[in-house]
Amino acid sequence: MSTSRARPLVTPVSVLLSFAAMLAIMGITSTWWEFALQDHILPRFGIPVDAGGGEPSRWRFIITAVAFAALSQIGPALLLFRLIRRLDRARIDVIKAREEADALARYDPLTGLPSRRMLREHMRKRLAVSAGSTGYALLLIDIDRFKIITDLHGLQMGDKLLLEIANRMKRLLPSDAVAARVSGEEFAVFMPRPRSVEPLGKLAQQLISHLSANYQFESLEVRLGATVGIAVTPENGTDEGEVMRSAETALYRAKRNAGSYRFFEPALDQELKQSRRLQRDLQSAITSNAIVPHYQPLVRLKDGAVVGFEVLARWNHPMQGFISPEVFISIAEDTGLIGPLTQSILKRACQDAAQWPERLKIAVNLSAMQLKDTALPDQILRTLKSHNFPPQRLEIEITETALVDDDKTANAILTRFRAMGIDVALDDFGTGYSSLQNLRTFPVTKLKIDKSFVRSMNTDANAKKLISGILALSRSLGISTTAEGIEKAAEAKYLNSVDCDFGQGYCFAKPMQAEDVPRFLNTHVPVLSGAL
Ligand code: C2E
Ligand code: CA
Ligand code: CA
């Protein structure tokens, strides 16, 4: 931006020039008056013109008049000059401050990249004259795990990382691309689009792998990830606002699968609108207790005895009917509602389970992201205490993803749960990272073999071998095992024969409402494995 507006209006030269101009004007006007005007004007008022002095005295009169007039102006002129100088300085300060704020808003001071505002201005200009060109592409890049790293290693480390991210991006981008930092850990690239979209996918993939490569700072090694949303013009929008929204929608959707990229599709827009509607409804559903726990029995395979219930959240939406927990749990995770949802489900489960025999446990699911919150174990303990519910009757279920991102915090949280007497089950084992090492590293007391293994057990000999392997390992570590998704008596029988401890699935019962539990317990006949 030009700084010409910030130059002082009043300088010594400008004052001298104005003074000289004033003298010149006074000289010219008084000469004009003395030699020309007064001869015409004074007689009209009946005043005689005194021309007796001759030319020299007329000049003397002119010079004296101008000199006195000039002298009489010096005092007020100096005062006026100082006043104007002061006003001028204040005006310059305001302009400079405004210019600095403007520059800050246009460029990110840390990375030197254009800001969101500057990017939008650039996009507006380019899109306004894009008729005839093949169009543009906008890639929005979100840096994964950035917040965790800055929480762990401080903001200075965050700054170093942002600089390195910006450098890695610049090295990869074509010369006609404009890179910008649009918010804390979100970057953008705006560039003329190639005719086909494949090269854009390739570029997104390259950005992801370069930004995910290790960051080395002295002895510290840090890993981040990146997720990319892409929108192209004119298909996904013709003005900068529309293109930005489309790229944001694509990014939002890509984030479900961190480390991936996604092009905008109109269907995503619908999905996002629906998801926003659900977000709003979810908030009120939690506070009005419209999300209720259902209970699915956990059965000891050896004798068929019920040992507890898994607590599964259910939401019967007034307009849309039953909504799968897979859908609303992920919305709750995205919107920070998972904490309140878990607490509400746990409270209800404590109240319901208080009516059941004391030997029956409840197993509550926790989301991976909740294992980053070190306050969680004590919050849960407080809820248990306020309902007089012994911690020994609670089991928490976590998935392996919870152990990957920040294993130290997760380990500390699980250790705290264990110290309280709460059991820890590793859920969906076999689907995620399936690191057997996790069983050694984390204080896990139970392992739940995923239902997909039980499903494929009937057709795939390898699945059986794998199950036997998992069972042998957990036995050697003193960890008990539950197989989930048991739908047939024959599956239960086989699993019992290979020493799997517990089972869960439609074969025993589907998840049921609290009021159906007592009837289920009364009518359930413990079946010995041989009879299953
Ligand atoms: P999950 O923890 O693996 O829960 C077991 C899922 O398997 C449940 O699905 C259950 O209804 C289903 N299931 C049980 N037996 C059988 C069977 O024999 N065959 C088949 N095909 N399926 C069976 P649901 O209730 O739809 O829950 C889905 C997932 O939602 C759960 O998977 C869990 O990850 C999550 N979830 C549910 N409630 C909560 C909650 O309160 N908090 C959190 N964080 N997640 C929850
Ligand atoms: Ca579970
Ligand atoms: Ca499971």
Characterise the protein shown here.
With 532 residues, this protein is of the alpha/beta class. It folds into 3 domains: 3-106, no CATH class; 116-264, Alpha-Beta Plaits (2-Layer Sandwich), CATH 3.30.70.270; 292-520, TIM Barrel, CATH 3.20.20.450. The protein is 52% helix and 17% strand. The chain has 18 helices and 16 strands. The chain has an 8-stranded mixed barrel with strand order 8-9-11-12-13-14-15-16, surrounded by 6 helices. α1 packs across α2 and α4 runs antiparallel to α5 (155-172). The chain is elongated and about 145 Å long. Residues 427-428, 448, 484 line the site of one calcium ion.
Q: Output the structural class.
A: alpha/beta
The radius of gyration over CA amounts to 39 Å
Gross morphology? elongated
**Unreliably modeled segments:** none
Number of strands: 16
Catalogue the ligands: ligand C2E, calcium ion
Q: What is the arithmetic mean of pLDDT?
A: 89
The tally of structural domains comes to 3
What top-tier CATH class of the largest domain fits best? Alpha Beta
> Any idea of the CATH topology of the largest domain?
TIM Barrel
As laid out across the biggest beta sheet, the strand order is 8-9-11-12-13-14-15-16
Describe the biggest sheet?
8 strands, mixed, barrel
> What count of helical segments does DSSP give?
18
The fourth-level CATH homologous superfamily of the largest domain is EAL domain
What would you call the quaternary organization?
A: single chain
Distance between the termini: 81 Å
